[in-house]
Amino acid sequence: DITTDIILNKFTKNPGGIVIIAGTGSNCQLISSDLVQHGCGGWGHLLGEKGSAYSIAHRLVKAVFDDLDCFEEPAYNTDVGRKLVWEYFGVDDQMDMLQFYYTKFEKAHIAGLTNKISKVAREQKDPLLLSCFELAGAQYAKMLTGVIKRYRKEKGEDYRGPDEYIDVVCMGGVFESWDLLELGFRDQFNQQSYITKVRLYRLEACGSLGAARLCDPRLELDYNKNTRLFCEIVKK
Q1: What burial letters (b/e) apply to 42-72, b meaning 16+ CB within 10 Å?
Q2: Mean pLDDT score across all residues of the chain
Q3: CA–CA separation, 208 and 22 (whole Å)
């Protein structure tokens, strides 16, 4: 449960915190000190799972389709991306691809393409593949800004002071490709005006600890052992 995950991974002396989840789907949630949720995303792949493995894979597939349709001039060459998509799904053309989006649709299967995209992006430095991850990174920064803005709007106060760090737990397999996501995240973070400092952490402990903490607020946990800092950014 996302609430227990957040409580498990708080880093201040107050309960609550922020978590970004990016796996097959995506979500960003802020839990305030009174355990009220403020969210951005998490509405499913049709309405809002930006930066998810599904959305990264879908972005590549859509770029390939639009190029083949001559719908618009592609920002990057799609040859490497098209070969990757065709090989992953075992097809030779657009018509063969339709089954995976309609009659045999499996969100997790489409999302699985993202693992292949990350591997080839690193190996070949293909601009289109890299751009798919950079956009996802930018979307995480937007989601983070979104929950901070919702908190301010709904609570009538700032989440943290202007010079305080915002601590965020990042969960899900997509964050294993942070080297591909970081540029987009940093660029978008530097464009917003709601946060000046952020620290990103990975989960190092079992979520059952959060469940125990939720059931018994008296339970004392050493939160520093539950997470690992992997990125720290100060707005330019």
Answers
A1: beebeebbbbbbbbbbbbbbebbeebeeeee
A2: 87
A3: 20
Residue 22, strand partner residues: 26
The confidence score (pLDDT) of residue 65 equals 98
What CA dihedral angle connects 81, 79, 187 and 52, to 10 degrees?
-10
Task: Check if the beta carbon of residue 102 is closer than 8 Å to that of residue 10.
Answer: no
Residue 60 structure tokens = 């590549």
Reduced to 3 states (helix: H, G, I; strand: E, B; else coil), residue 26 is strand
Q: pLDDT value at position 129?
A: 98
Half-sphere exposure of 67 (CA within 13 A, CB side): 17
Nearest Cα to Cα of residue 116 among 92, 140, 90, 81:
81
User: Which 3 state secondary structure label does DSSP give 226?
Assistant: coil
Assign 3-state DSSP to the chain and report helix, strand, coil percentages, each to 5: 50, 15, 35
Residue given tokens 């002071």 in the structure block: 161
d(CA 121, CA 212): 41
232: its two tokens: 């720290």
Please determine, for residue 175, whether its predicted confidence score (pLDDT) is greater than 80: yes
39 contacts 30 by C-beta, under 8 angstroms: yes
Helix axes 178-191, 127-155, angle to 10 degrees: 50
DSSP lists the bridge partners of residue 96 as none
